[in-house]
Amino acid sequence: MIEELFAEFEGAFAENTIRSYRSDFSRFSRWCDENDLAPLDATSEDLAGFAEYLAKTCVGSTVRRHVASISSILKLSGREDIGKGAPVVLAMKRIYRRKGRWQRQAIPLTHNVLQALLAECDDSHRGLRDRVMLRLGYETMRRRHELCSFRFEDLEQLPSGKAALRLRFSKTDQYGAGKLIPISEVLHGDIQRWGELTGNTGYLLRRVYRKGEIGSDLHPGGIARRLQELQQQAGLELGGKLSGHSFRVGAALDLLERGESLEKIMLRGGWQAESTVVAYLRSWQASQDIEP
After folding, report:
1. What CA–CA distance (Å, rounded) separates 192 from 14?
2. CA distance 89 to 129
3. For 37-78, what is the HEC assignment?
4. What is the pLDDT of residues 145-194, one digit of tens each?
5. Which domains does the chain have, with CATH numbers?
6. Using CA atoms, how far apart are residues 274 and 277, in angstroms rounded to an integer?
């Protein structure tokens, strides 16, 4: 039954969403088995118990995500929305009071960090790919799976003559209205040089093996791994490891520091007003107003 439901999700949700749903429901199913419960017949009391179980080892935001996933899956299977039941609502309030709603933010990849990482990129195939990846992430401020979705065929020219990339789908554009994102001449030049090696077709970001062979499309998880390798090579102590989300946070902080409004930054990065990243930016902005 559940596999049939996940099969129906194909094409209706982004791959990352389906992957997250599968992972969260699998964890819920294991907990149900241990407690002699049927996951597809779970009640609000059951989901509240699962939330309390997760809260022993997980932060509040992780518990919230699991609860939302399970609620959505059961609702889409034609069952009651147990996530809105009083037991779940009260359980989450208790968890928030104990653990808070704070969510850890990515280490910012700001412009100075970008320059330090670019300095580690040589003229090899991997070095050129890395330059494209670094500038693409910083300039477009897109999520890692969106970065990996860009193709050479998405390159367009604006009326001004500048180059742009068309983002066909995103987390906030599930139906493909599309968006043109201008890019710098430097990035455009890097993409053109990279295209000479890859045939100017297919995905922009590709795997590059140790001997320099260019492979298939780069997995979103590969972005964080490569960023951390470059961070280590550059000897950058940033208070933590860079991640695929670091591009967005770092570029947003740079824009804020240059005087851009939060509204424009939200538009650039595709964030919603209630986003935790926007809350992070507001907090950072407020900290700059405090006299030392």
Report:
1. 29
2. 47
3. CCHHHCCHHHHHHHHHHHCCCCCHHHHHHHHHHHHHHHHHCC
4. 999 999 999 999 999 999 999 998 766 555 555 789 999 999 999 999 99
5. 2-99 (1.10.150.130), 111-288 (1.10.443.10)
6. 8
